[in-house]
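Ticket reopened. Same input as before:
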Amino acid sequence: MKIGITCYPTYGGSGVVATELGKVLALKGHEVHFITYAIPSRLSHFIENIFYHEVEMYKYPLFEFPLYAIALTSKMVEVAESHNLDILHAHYAIPHATSAYLAREILKSECEYKKEIKVITTLHGTDITLIGLEPSFQPTLKFSIEQSDGVTAVSSFLKEKTLSAYKVKKNIEVIPNFIEIKKFKKEDKEKSAGCLLGFCSGNEKILMHISNFRPLKRVQDVIRIFNDVKKKIPSKLILVGDGPERSDCERLCRELNIFDCVKFMGKQDSLVELLSLADLFLIPSESESFGLSALEAMSCSVPVISSNVGGLPELNIHGETGYTAETGDIKVMAEYSVELLSDMPKLESFGANARKRALQFSEDVVIPLYENFYEKILGGK
Ligand code: GMT
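Engineering reply: fixed in the latest deploy. New output:
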C-alpha cells in the first residue's frame, strides 16, 4: 500500500505513534510518505520506503495567523497525485482530518486523478477531550470525523467519549498504542546507572515520571506523592521531559525542601536507559486517553501508579501491574507507592506482570490491526 501519514512531528505521543507506525509499515514493504511541517523526531535514520514531504508555509503580511491547514491540504494533494497514494492517514484530528478531507475532495474533482483515495483519522487524546470541544473547533471536527472513510481511537474510553460528546454517527475502531518490546526492555541496572552516578545510592528506590509537563499531567501531584513516600522509604525522584509546568514544579520542590532529591532531566532520548533505573512509574494525569509513557515503563518491567481516568485503567490493571486511584488523591497514590516499594517480592511480581501486559500491546499484535483496517477501508467494507 502507499500511505501518506500526517502528524505533529515535534513531540507528543500522537507523533510518536504515527512515526513508529510508519517505520514498521515501511519495513513491512509498504510505501510511506510523511507529510508534516518538520521531520518527525523519531525519524532519525534512513529507512527504505520512507519519504518525507515538508509542508511549506507562505508568509504574507495580510495573514496575521498562519494558514497551515490550507498549506497542508495542498501538499497532501500534491503528494497523493505524484505518488499515487491509496490512503491519507491523519493522526490527531485537528486540523489534519479536515485537511485530509479537503484533499480527498479536491482529488475527486480532478478528473485526471482516477484513484479514489481514502481518508483515515486516528483520534489520540486532547483533539477530542479538550481542544475539540472548543466552540471554534467543534462543528468542523465533528464533520471531519464523520467524513473520514475510517476512524480509529486509541482506547475504548476515547471511542465512547467521541460518540457521546460529539454525537458522531460513525463506526470507530479501537486500535491501541503499541510498543517495540525488543527495544523497550529492562537493561542491566549497573550499565544504565552510569548516567546518574552520584545521585542515588544502592539502597534508595527510584520513582520516575515522563511527560511534556502540561497542566493535565499534574506533575505537581507526582512531586507531592514523592514527598510523602520519601518520609517512609529512602528514595529519589527522576522527572523526564519539559513543558509549561516545569518552573512551577522546580519551585514546589524548593518549597518542600526536597530539591536535592529530585532530578529534572529535561527532554531525553535514552528512555530505555532511564526507565531501567526506575522502581516505580507515576502518571497521575487528569486526562489520558491511553498513556503511552506508562506502556513504555511497563514494557521495561516497571509497575505503574496512575489515576483511573480515560484509557489508563484499560492499560494499568489495578492490583496486578500497579495501582489506580482517583485523580488528585495524592494520599492514596503515596500509600500504594509505599506498599509496593516496601515489599520487594510484590514489587518484582508487579514488574513481571507489567511486562506481560505490555506484550499484549507489542508491534506484532497491533500493527496488523492497522493493516487490516486499511484493507477493510480500501475494500469499501
Ligand atoms: O492529546 C494529547 O495530549 C496529544 C497526544 C500527543 O500528541 O501527545 O497525546 C495523546 O496521544 C497519545 C498517543 O496516542 C496517548 O498515549 C496519550 O494518552 C494522549 N494524551 C492525552 O490523552 C492527554
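Residues 8, 12-15, 17, 92, 124-126, 154, 177, 216, 287-292 surround GMT (CB under 6 Å). Residues 274 and 286 are 24 Å apart (CA to CA). Please confirm and we'll close it.
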